[in-house]
Amino acid sequence: MPDAALVRVLSWVPPFTPLLLFVRIALGDISWWEIVGEVGLLGLSTIVLLFVAARIFRRTILNYEGVSWGRFWSLLMDRE
Length: 80
Hints:
Layout: H1 5-10, H2 17-26, H3 32-60, H4 69-77
């Protein structure tokens, strides 16, 4: 099962990486460069999402109204 193409592809998608990476390691179906790549991509995506969340939080902390998707994107893309 871990040799399936879907499992290989989904193991590179950050939300699925922790579970599928350990499954593939336990079954011995993964090379060292895939482990390094997947962990690196997971770390990079975590850092990017942390900065995005901090930016949105900083701009909406005192806003008691709901934030629409349009407002969300404008807050995210607006330069300080």
